[in-house]
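Give me structure tokens for this 344-residue protein.
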Amino acid sequence: MRCTIVPPHMLERIVEAAEDPALRDSARRSLALSSEQRSARLARSVETPAPNEDFVPNRTIHDAKNQERLPGDKARAEGGAATGDKVVDQAYDWLGATFDFFEAAYRRNSIDGAGLPLISTVHYGRAYENAFWNGEQMVYGDGDGKVFLAFTGPLDVTGHELVHGITQHTANLEYQGQPGALNESVSDVFGSLVKQWHLKQTADQADWLIGQGLFAEGVNAKALRSMKEPGTAYDDPRLGKDPQPGHMNDYVETTSDNGGVHINSGIPNRAFHLAATAIGGRSWEKAGRVWYDTLTGGRIQTATDFAGFAAATVSTAAGLYGADGAETRAVRDAWAGVGVAVPG
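Here you go.
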């Protein structure tokens, strides 16, 4: 699957609409590189080892030096001092923050639950406008400096992409149609929760934005996506208008982007936001626990759709908090609020 943080429709819009030839060329090259990585990713198989609780992070940051090579030259290893390269050091810090979150919140030891080394490559390509998980490691572009800034900046970008790895090692949701949109949504959910945990925010204090701070000055964009209000994250001539729906009435039928995985993810994103804010408090503790246990507990399969995932979250909530518990009602009501009915 192509696990990139920036959806292809945004880069395609830049290719079509940007007046700056260099910006169009950067977007075109970024689309091509992302497509190549998708092909490589599809060829990989995953073996998940037995969980352990050593909880010792093992981070390595590599520098591609603006070439298209992986992993690149080693720039910083676990326990090493800060390098002075902001991008290298941000990547190191955000890998650590994501590792610490999953240990603290869910007793998960890295991506595979067994202490998988966390590898990242920074300064990938020339003005590469994306970040991605390729099945084995994180990769960050520096952005073009005109629309996109360095992709190591927002913590939730790192969180989002690493969670694609967790999904790969657990439910392995296929990257097409509704299962693919769920795959993207789960990454947005936990990317947001990593940020909320790091900032010590409650549900009502969080901005619920994915990629806030990624855009250069002068771009009319708050973020890549809004979980609270899908469809409102950006509206800029170079990017177009955010196409995400927040309700099944507006579900987008398309053959692009693997059936709209980055677009229709707005629906389950909003469902999580509704559940988390209705429950209140720290989102990772109850709403996040429901989503995490659903993802990792064998309740869903690779082809699970929105209705199946919704039913699984309600069942998980009932197991945790009781069928008549306020938390279970909040989860059920959240899905109803986005037009996904759960029987019972």
